[in-house]
Design a protein that fits this description.
Length: 539
């Protein structure tokens, strides 16, 4: 009975949700109603219960297709059109998505090249001499993640490939590595003025200097800041709780995966004994440099735009694809000149790198298709209507926006799409206050707090969601079972989210960054220290 309890509870939750949907809105009017959130609820719930992500995502897609076909009155034609044509085919043909897939594949190839050249092995040996403990391995992973602040996709995959040998050496579970990657990537990018995230946020508010607004939101972006505090505390204190504790205990006994269905098994490949640490460090630096160049190129830097403007107007997908491809060519030439790889080895690595990324590509394809289902059912309009009903309670608006952003980002798996929907709503609510910004140059504090709440909630929901791009990338980078990563990360993310809620409630009334941030950090550290003391007593 206990074995099937979670499945029974999930079935009851879905059944109650469907009944409420039927009571409030007939299925023929499902578009823009509660029905629009049912597909992601089905996909996420099944993924967490069955521990099987592919079939769960596909079940969510099918659910969305059925609802769309009935509500639009298009029958089978509408169903197949939504699932296959507008869903899978359109997403694979989308230039932005294709750029991300290209970047993913090229990065997989570069990782295989670094492994074959012996760079990863040499770095692992060097790290074993200099990084002496689990704490050191975790902190090193965090610090490397902070250094790669340009883009979260790039961060997840690069940090994972570099740090896996180090964390494996010190018996850090793959679930813990995936958490460290995921909890560093987006939070660092969302508070870095020079990043693809800054570029995305800066373009969402008209009539205001986008970069100036983004910088002003950083101190109030509680989820990002508190997550970084939590990562540092957990790494230094070696404190874990929830499902992560079981994974870490297993890792100490030699089981890094705690999964019988590991997808990312790495086949043994010949490694060059001549490989040196520079054969890993230099390719990574080349990759970072070329990706930055690619991004500012797409933003018009070489046509006269300044660096900041070029970053704010860049096409991240195209820039990363362009930069990674250029880096790949340079890295191949470098390895050939070094004599650590032959031309045939380099060409064989292309196929191997693509194979390594197939699981991530498949999950991304299904996740994007599921997002299309929610868009076709007009979930954003439903959420926007909910937010509009709360605008009269302006003191509680930051906390409300944070909760709505978490829910929307969790259901749709996109943080960028979430703040793209909610920030225009915030600017609409405060349109009178924003009208004077061009004259005074001063953005009202409440506007900054509310936009920060949208950004914080978007990152939080993105962290918790199994269908999030960055969550998938983190699993891929750590080569961790995807559902294991999600189930171990959710308790950590929800703890920070609960503290953020308190912080945004305080912010709505006080509007003082020192009080808000200080009290939030104090509450989080108090809770974490309690876990630390309890762990010490049990051990």
């Amino acid at each position: 009975m206990k074995k099937h309890l979670s499945k029974i509870i999930f079935a009851l939750i879905v059944l109650v949700y469907i009944v409420i949907c039927f009571i409030t809105t007939p299925i023929t009017g499902a578009i823009g109603s509660m029905w629009s959130l049912l597909p992601p609820i089905v996909a996420i719930g099944l993924a967490l219960i069955t521990k099987e992500v592919y079939s769960s995502l596909f079940a969510g897609i099918i659910t969305g297709g059925i609802i769309y076909a009935i509500s639009s009155g298009t029958g089978f034609e509408g169903f197949f059109g939504a699932v296959v044509k507008e869903g899978i085919i359109t997403n694979l043909a989308d230039s932005y998505n294709a750029g991300i897939l290209m970047f993913l594949v090229v990065l997989g190839i570069i990782v295989v090249l670094m492994n074959k050249a012996g760079g990863s092995n040499a770095y692992g040996e060097w790290a074993a001499k200099h990084i002496k403990s689990r704490k050191g391995a975790c902190i090193s992973t965090f610090l490397l993640g902070c250094l790669i602040f340009v883009d979260d996709y790039f961060n997840c995959l690069t940090v994972g490939s570099v740090m896996r040998p180090v964390t494996d050496k010190h018996s850090v579970s793959r679930a813990k590595l995936a958490y460290l990657i995921d909890a560093t990537a987006a939070p660092v990018c969302i508070i870095a003025p020079i990043s693809s995230w800054a570029a995305a946020v800066s373009g969402t508010v008209e009539g205001v200097n986008g970069i100036q607004l983004f910088i002003q939101t950083i101190p109030y972006n509680l989820y990002a800041l508190l997550t970084i505090v939590m990562v540092v505390f957990i790494a230094l204190s070696d404190t874990d709780f929830g499902p992560m504790k079981r994974h870490e205990n297993n890792a100490r006994k030699g089981d890094l995966f705690t999964s019988k269905n590991m997808v990312y098994d790495e086949p043994e490949m010949p490694m060059n004994s001549k490989g040196k640490v520079i054969d890993l460090i230099l390719p990574v630096l080349i990759l970072i440099f070329m990706c930055v160049v690619g991004m500012i190129y797409t933003g018009g830097f070489f046509k006269g735009a300044d660096f900041i403007t070029a970053f704010s107007e860049c096409d991240a997908s195209y820039g990363l694809a362009l930069g990674s491809l250029g880096a790949l060519l340079i890295i191949i030439v470098y390895y050939l000149c070094r004599g650590v790889l032959k031309f045939k080895d380099c060409m064989d690595s292309i196929v191997s790198g693509f194979k390594h990324m197939v699981p991530a590509i498949l999950i991304l394809m299904f996740a994007w298709t599921l997002k299309t289902m929610t868009s076709m059912l007009n979930a954003p309009a439903f959420v926007s209507g909910l937010v509009g009903n709360f605008t009269a309670i302006q003191m509680l608006l930051p906390a409300i926006l944070f909760v709505v952003a978490v829910g929307l980002s969790f259901a749709t798996g996109t943080s960028w799409g979430t703040f793209g929907i909610l920030i225009p709503i915030v600017t609409g609510v405060f349109s009178t206050s924003l009208a004077s910004v061009e004259e005074t140059g001063v953005i009202p504090e409440m506007v900054i707090i509310c936009i920060s709440a949208c950004l914080a909630g978007a990152v939080c929901g993105d962290h918790c969601s199994p269908i999030s791009d960055t969550t998938i990338m983190s699993s891929t980078g750590a080569q961790c079972d995807h559902v294991n990563h999600v189930s171990t990360q959710i308790p950590y993310a929800l703890l920070v989210a609960a503290v953020c809620m308190v912080g945004f409630i305080i912010a709505g009334f006080v509007q003082n960054i020192f009080v808000v941030l200080g009290s939030s950090v104090a509450i989080l550290l108090a809770v974490l220290f309690t876990f630390f003391v309890l762990n010490k007593r049990r051990s």
